[in-house]
Amino acid sequence: MSRPAPLTFYEFFAGGGMARLGLGDAWSCAFANDFDPLKAATYRDNFPDAAEHFREGDVWALEARDLPGRADLAWASSPCQDFSLAGGRAGLAGGRSSAFFGFWRLVEALAAEDRAPRNVVIENVTGLLSSQGGADFTALCAALAAAGYRFGALEIDAAAFLPQSRPRVFVIATRDPVPPALTGDSPFQTRAVREAQARLPADLAARWIWWRGEAPGRRNTTLAEVLEPDDAVAWHAPDKTQALLAMMAPLHRARIAQAAAGGDRVVGGLFRRMRVEQGEKVQRAEARFDGLAGCLRTPRGGSSRQTLVVADGGQVRTRLISGREGARLMGLPDAYRLPKAATSALHVIGDGVAPPVVRWLAVHLLEPLLNARTPEAAAA
Q: May I ask the CATH class of domain 7-217+350-379?
């Protein structure tokens, strides 16, 4: 029996190729793009065939002729900084948030050539659902509808798969007939998703799909299990640790004291937050010991790089998270090649999508949808 041909995809804002890793071997990348030189170098370092399909540069510089064939899927994890879609076709003058329309104009151009991707996935921060009172999400849905797509959204936290709290929204759009088995209830149809759908005007709401999908089984890894050995990493000097502990409010100091008094090794995440206390802004250090890291971000100095706190045998130590640990928190294999500097490695992965979440979408929605043999699909 012959093996079916791989499903094809374009990966926009590809970064280090994490959506590609999540899709897996049943998929073939026909085109990938990113404008960031460090991310582009990391992509090339991890995918030997990058010379055949990867294009470094701004998405606004691409044309439909740069994209081969007709892809089964276009994946876009567009920049989320200052995300604005409503009236967002300003091009380069519009800043990073307008990058979505740099991508979308390509989809529209492909549609004009009868080459529109059969399916589109748009991944972004959950604020997309509510920004500008929902106007941004409505603008996105209007763009999808105008190009002939039906659509729905799921809000998935990577914590269901990995020891990292990383909620993201995934808008899944299709031009294909949707098998009834792929619609229904899902725990990822969160309150925010339902409220966003309820705000849509009637013509867009009529194109909505309630994508089905059960949550994965119970996660069996914790933050402590992805860490490097203690003797392989650099720890803060004791005075640095004490300075961080001094920034804690009483509740968090009590958590640290309880962890230290227990005698067993306890690993947690430590985060610096601005809080308002008695009418004044105060920077606080806050700890969590629930087995999860906080959401990884692209480090730009200050408090954006995560700190770990370890209580063991009555001693409390702190240190910064390493690049490899960050990669494991994203679900990347240790064979994945990272930039040598930790800040550079975290820059690549901090904007990425968690591959296990992509794999879940591929298995539960994308592959069944694309491989469905409905009468309409057979005639297409």
A: alpha beta
